[in-house]
Amino acid sequence: MKRFAAITLAALISAPICAHADDITDQINEALKAYKAKDLETAMMALDSASTLIRQQRADNLAELLPQPLPGWVSEADDTSTGANAAMFGGGTNAERVYRQQKDDDYKEIRITITGDSMMIQSMSLLFSNPMFMSGRDQKLVVIDGRKVMQDSAEGSLTTMVNNKALVVVNASSNEPAMMDAAKRYFNAVNFKKLEAMMK
Q1: Which of 62, 90, 107 lies at the terminal end of a domain, its last residue?
Q2: pTM of this prediction?
Q3: Phi and psi of 184, rounded to 5°?
Q4: Which among 63, 121, 64 has a CA at the least distance from the CA of 94?
Q5: Is there a single domain that holds both residue 56 and residue 135?
Q6: Are the C-beta atoms of residues 63 and 19 closer than 8 Å to each other?
Q7: Helix, strand, or coil here: 74?
Q8: pLDDT at 157
Q9: Which CATH number does the domain housing residue 178 bear?
Q10: Which of 3, 34, 39, 70 is the most exposed place for a label (fewest CB within 10 A)?
Q11: One domain, residues 89 and 188
Q12: 12 lies in which domain range?
């Protein structure tokens, strides 16, 4: 257990720290102090807190890559969420934003989700390297702006991988041609350049 705590501590210390730096540093220092005092329980709790803060910062960074609403669409502050997934895609961090358009009784919605830092995401690469793994006739591999994208016409979704470390999903509220065109425009509006740099 001591070896595990030391390895975890070293990993956290070497992790990039942007915002929440004071809180993260405080938790790491508390863990170091407790570890040196052989208080492993307190050290582990402090490390868990530091790890959570780092994941939160990671998710906030992902949220910055989500596009602003396109002309004719709206997205409020409450329409953006970030967090860490305990189960979905094998854990990881994610950022999500919802874009809405309503004319009379016609309500439309686009949802973009970016998920990173998940071990399960790597298994998704099979869908992009070999289209035969795709299930059903509604799924097909397309290329959008030079990127391999899994298009699900039944779900009205577009999914792509970034450096085998991040998953970007654009979901439309319907699979109508106009909505799929809107989904493609939002897909192209994601800041993939910065996402690729983040996921090196």
Answers
A1: 62
A2: 0.77
A3: -65, -35
A4: 63
A5: no
A6: no
A7: strand
A8: 95
A9: 3.40.1000
A10: 3
A11: yes
A12: 2-62
Check residue 73 and give its pLDDT.
Answer: 96
Cα dihedral sign, 172-139-187-18: positive
- Token pair of 69, please? 């609403």
| Bridge partner residues of 151 (DSSP) | 140, 158
Both 80 and 58 in a single domain?
no
CB 42 within 8 A of CB 7: no
Placement of tokens 């289209």 in the chain: 131
Domain boundary, last residue among 31, 62, 93: 62
**Residues 44 and 58 placed together within one structural domain of the fold:** yes
DSSP secondary structure string for all residues of 90-153: GS-EEEEEEEEEEETTEEEEEEEEEEES-TTHHHHHHHHH-GGG--STTEEEEEETTEEEEEET
Same domain, 80 and 19: no
**56-114 residue pLDDT tens:** 888 889 999 999 999 999 998 888 888 766 544 456 788 999 999 988 888 999 999 99
Look at the alpha carbons of 125, 119, 110, 175 in this order and tell me if their dihedral is positive or negative: positive
CA angle 60, 61, 62 (to 5 degrees): 90
Q: What is the tally of structural domains in the chain? A: 2
- SS (HEC) of 156-189: CEEEEEECCCEEEEEEECCCCHHHHHHHHHHHHH
- E strand or H helix that includes residue 55: helix 40-63
